[in-house]
Design brief:
The protein is 38% helix and 18% strand. By secondary structure, the protein is an alpha/beta fold. It folds into two domains: 5-299, Carbon-nitrogen hydrolase (Nitrilase/N-carbamoyl-D-aminoacid amidohydrolase, 4-Layer Sandwich); 322-546, 3-Layer(aba) Sandwich (Rossmann fold). The strands form four sheets. A seven-stranded mixed sheet has the order 13-12-11-10-9-8-15, covered by helices on one side. A six-stranded mixed sheet has the order 5-4-3-2-1-14. Strands 18-17-16-19-20 form a five-stranded parallel sheet. The model has no long low-confidence stretch (mean pLDDT 93).
């Protein structure tokens, strides 16, 4: 079953200036390798690659132009049996004028000629000496034995078998102008832009060129395949570097190093692009004159799931690289702390009340509360750290809660809950030996009652500790840790929580604080609601009950941010995390994710306020307007077909 990924390639054949036969053979060789070796379904070749870009006044020679037309016919015939769309550059004569064109061919058929719209005539470029700007309007011409060939800028090439695969073309300079043709192409429905280029090499130009390609793909929510001329061009005054690139919605998927091998391949997810455009309310809603009159030419491809070579990030919420990760952590902490500071200021709260367990989430909440007080210029003693040992509290977590509070200079208060919960069991007639959900949730609700009442006593505000991953899974006791007066961690996934705490540990000037934070990081994640084991250690480990957060955060990102279906999420998880988890394990926890995500929406429908920190959030007031009674049947049925 096709899942939206289209294998694309940009190739820079080694040309011989004005030697059409040699160039066509080089183009055929590159296309053959891209299709047969890489499995490419779209192959983009450079600007004027059939003749060479740097032919100068030889473009006035009929012999060269006639050879180019014959060369295009030869390229089409040689690739007739290839299951791919090929786009190649050549000069074309139309109505006594010469145009710098891109020819789209598939299965031996010339689908269309797209002329270059913007002709450079400055600095080292003087294309206007030979070429005229291509018209927007599409007419029909004859070329090299083909009749009724669409000619003009307003063209789309649409794949019959994959509706979201719509390719449009712009040529080199078209990208560098204030209003690139790709803007109109995308408004007309194009999901991939092919750019045939002959951009010369200058010091620093590669960085600028890369920023243009990546930026345009982000601005237009599209895939962008950029093929640039090789160093086989004339070096009379210029050198060309075969700088090929593939980008998708602001991500550089693949790049051929300038003066490298002149070949790049990756996969563009056209279904994901279409889904993202549907999500963006302002995308394509303002009609423009250039949007009208597009000629759409269809072509057929045999599309099957392709082997993925693009990187699938196993930790989509956590940047790779120490520097970027540190910057991200500072950004997140700043968002959390400033959000809390504003709420404290607005409510005129005299203190912040944080229930501290010695676990990761409450540790992060306490760190954020201290930062908020720094922002407001208040002493840390206004942060009330409340530790509430119960049946499952271990010496390790209790000790860490105490040491953490002291290291931060917070006011520490201990309120044991064991006897209060036992009295509650007597009041409701619950046997203490019955370790069911009532046993666990009674403790969680007792703790929340204590926090709320202390906040009332002190004129303060209860800071919530639950994180995004727990909210997605519903791993929270309703009206207990599920509730607070401001949830600072509500937008932070569990995999990122760990890095935030580690960032503070690594950057702190306090050895005492760093030591206790590192021990918190080394402690298993647990609600500690069941009595400790015989060795005094934690007996209840969250990830053994609901599954690894590494997997759940991956699922969460792909489902909410990308909008992918179960089959695609499963496939991507196997690519990204298959070495750490077997197929059966991934499928088991993915099924559990969907079941919990759907059944626990009622908890998310009444969440307290909390700051959004990333592109995935579950606030009922913002990012996730989901009915509490929605059924998971469709999603679970699709998963069932994968067993």
């Amino acid at each position: 079953m096709q899942d939206g990924f289209v294998k694309v390639a940009a190739r820079s054949p080694q040309v011989r200036v004005a030697d059409v036969d040699a160039n066509v053979e080089a183009c055929i060789a590159e296309v053959t390798d891209a299709v047969r070796t890489d499995g490419a379904k779209l192959v983009v070749l450079p600007e004027l690659c059939v003749t060479g870009y740097s032919c100068e006044d030889l473009f006035w020679q009929d012999a060269l132009l006639a050879a180019a037309e014959r060369g295009l016919a030869r390229l089409a015939e040689a690739t007739r049996d290839f299951d791919a769309l090929v786009v190649a550059g050549l000069p074309s004569r139309v109505n006594a004028k010469l145009y710098n064109c891109a020819a789209a061919i598939a299965h031996g058929r010339l689908l269309g000629l797209v002329p270059k719209r913007h002709i450079p005539d400055y600095n080292e470029f003087y294309e206007a000496r030979h070429f005229v700007p291509g018209p927007w309007e599409v007419s029909f011409v004859s070329l090299a034995g083909w009749r009724e060939v669409p000619f003009g800028c307003r063209q789309l090439f649409s794949c019959d078998g994959l509706p979201n695969l719509k390719v449009a073309v712009e040529v080199c300079e078209d990208l560098w102008v204030p209003g690139p043709p790709s803007i109109a192409h995308v408004r007309a429905g194009a999901t991939i832009i092919a750019n045939l280029s002959a951009s010369d090499a200058l010091v620093g130009k590669a960085d600028y060129r890369r920023s243009l390609v990546v930026g345009q793909s982000a601005r237009l929510v599209c895939g962008y395949v950029y093929a640039s001329a090789s160093w086989g061009e004339s070096t009379q005054d210029l050198v060309f570097s075969e700088h090929d690139m593939v980008a998708e919605n602001g991500m550089l998927l693949a790049e051929a190093r300038p003066f490298g091998d002149g070949a790049v391949v990756s996969e563009i997810d056209v279904d994901a692009l279409a889904a993202e455009r549907r999500r963006l309310s302002g995308f394509g809603t303002v009609p423009c004159p250039e949007d009208a009159g597009y000629e759409v030419t269809t072509f057929a491809l045999g599309l099957t799931p392709t082997r993925l070579t693009r990187h699938v990030d196993p930790h989509p919420f956590v940047p790779s690289g120490a520097r970027r990760r540190s910057e991200r952590c500072e950004d997140v902490l700043s968002i959390q702390a400033h959000g809390l500071a504003k709420r404290l200021q607005h409510t005129r709260s005299e203190c912040a009340v944080v229930g501290v367990s010695g676990g990761l989430d409450s540790t992060l909440a306490l760190l954020v509360a201290v930062r908020a007080f720094d922002i407001l210029g208040l002493g840390h003693e206004g942060v009330l750290a409340i530790t509430m040992p119960g049946f499952g509290t271990t010496e390790r977590t209790h000790g860490n809660a105490l040491e953490l509070s002291r290291a931060l200079g917070a006011s520490l208060r201990e309120v044991p809950i064991t006897e209060a919960v036992r009295q509650h069991f007597l009041d409701i007639g619950h046997d203490e030996d019955d370790r069911s959900v009532t046993y666990e949730n009674a403790q969680a609700r007792e703790r929340t009652q204590i926090l709320m009442d202390i906040a009332n006593q002190e004129g303060g505000l209860v800071v919530g500790t639950g994180d995004l991953s727990e909210l997605a899974l519903g791993w929270a006791t309703y009206n207990a840790d599920h509730m607070s007066m401001y949830g600072v961690n509500a937008g932070v996934p569990k995999t990122l929580v760990r890095h935030l705490v580690r960032h503070v540990a690594d950057s702190s000037d306090s050895p005492e604080l760093s030591r206790v934070l590192l021990d918190v990081l080394d402690t298993p994640v647990s609600p500690e609601l069941l009595p400790a084991g015989g060795d005094g250690g934690i007996s209840q480990r969250t990830e053994e009950l609901v599954g690894p957060y590494e997997l759940h955060d991956f699922f969460l990102y792909q489902v909410l941010r990308r909008g992918f279906g179960p089959r695609k999420v499963y496939r991507l998880a196997r690519v990204a995390l298959g070495q750490a988890y077997g197929d059966a394990t991934i499928l088991k926890w993915l099924r559990n994710f969907y079941r919990r995500f759907f059944s626990q929406q009622f908890k998310r429908s009444c969440l307290p306020d909390g700051p959004k920190v990333g592109s995935v959030a579950v606030s009922p007031r913002g990012d996730l307007r989901m009915p509490s009674d929605a059924c998971a049947t469709v999603w679970l049925r699709e998963l069932g077909g994968l067993e």
